[in-house]
Amino acid sequence: MDDRTRFYIEREYGFSLESFPSTGITLRESPARRDEPGNRMVITRMGQGVLATGIPRVIRAIALVIRAMGMWELFSPVGVADLRRALRPEESETLGEGFHYTVGNEKRLRPVKFAHTTVRLLEPDAPPDEDDLVAAPQRLPPGQDFVPAFAVYQDDKQVASSGIRWKSPGFVEIGVSTHEDYRGRGYGLAVVASAIYWILAQGAVAYYPVAPSNVPSVRIARRLGFSLTWQEIYA
Question: Global pTM?
Answer without folding.
Answer: 0.86
